[in-house]
Amino acid sequence: MAARKFNRAQEDVGNIVGLEHMNVLIGDQIKATLFYVKGLGFTRDPYMMTSVDNMWINLGRSQFHLPTGKPQVLRGRTGLVVSSHEKLLERLKSVRQDLSGTKFKYATDKKRKVVDVVCPWGNRFRCHEAGAFGKMRVGMPYIQFDVRTGTAAGIARFYKEMLGAPGHVGKWDGAKAAIVQAGTDQSLVFREKRGPEAKFDGHHIQIYIVDFSGPYNRLMERGLVSEESNQYQYRFVDITDLDSGELLFKIDHEVRALSHPMYGRPFVNRNPDQHIRRFVDGYETTPWLQPAGA
User: Which residues pair with 57 in a beta bridge?
Assistant: First the structure.
């Protein structure tokens, strides 16, 4: 019997094994609850940041961190996976009146099979249905940044050589982009966009990496480490051309080791499709995340 052939490289993840959270300041915790919990259908973490000045929102194995402050806006959009567009649109409609007077809006793009949503402070999200990104049933498959024309190749090289994250230059939503692997079914996307680049306002992303010291040493050699957080974490902001040193893009990276105390912490995910009028016992939480037939 002949041995089966497999493309083993298809399962390679690279050094970044998880894009865990995106952190942006928001202007109002009540409006954030209406948008992220009631509208998008995600879950406020019941154990961490439970006061009124910050909230952590669980979506699958990723999170949004939302401290109160002067609102920050990511220069691009965040990709989301939701269980159903039909149910998502019902929820978004239900918060429309409460969020009137803000930047909140949404629209269905039938050609792309997505729902585009804008939060009350202007952050943009593109919502895909479960199945669009491998086995992900709910979560954050990508963050797409708008970068200057001509920078994609340099950014892809930076992540490959400095962080050990495989990536390539290709097309993303019709434009040239660096597409960097950031975990199973997750990517950081740097899409070239014509025109002036928006000013960086300090928002950050958080990643877990396997080789913790190697990237640290390479970043230190170039003077790019921006914060010595603690034994398990450091940060950097500048993505640079490895030959000329030219600044290509700024985004604050919170880099954590797999030995970080919070690595692998289970995230509670409720089923937003459960309703008091159509309640089904046993499907309030994680079972709805499982693939069909699991």
Answer: 44, 64
Q: Which two tokens stand for residue 265?
A: 């912490």
Q: What is the pLDDT of residue 217?
A: 97
- Of the listed ranges 103-112, 161-170, 235-244, 277-286, the one predicted with least confidence: 277-286
At residue 293, the pLDDT reads 44
**What CATH class is the domain 14-265?**
alpha beta
Kindly report the pTM of this predicted structure: 0.93
Domain residue spans in the chain?
Answer: 14-265
- Helix, coil or strand: residue 39: helix
At CA 133, angle to CA 131 and CA 135, rounded to 5? 65
Say if CB 246 and CB 198 are below 8 A apart: no
> Which residues, 6 or more positions from 172, have their beta carbon under 8 angstroms from its beta carbon?
144, 179, 189, 191
Give the pairing type, strands 76-82 and 124-129. parallel
The H or E element that residue 89 is part of is: helix 85-95
User: In 48-77, which positions are buried (b, 16+ CB within 10 angstroms) versus exposed (e)?
Assistant: eeeeeebbbbbbbbbbbbbebeebbbbbbb
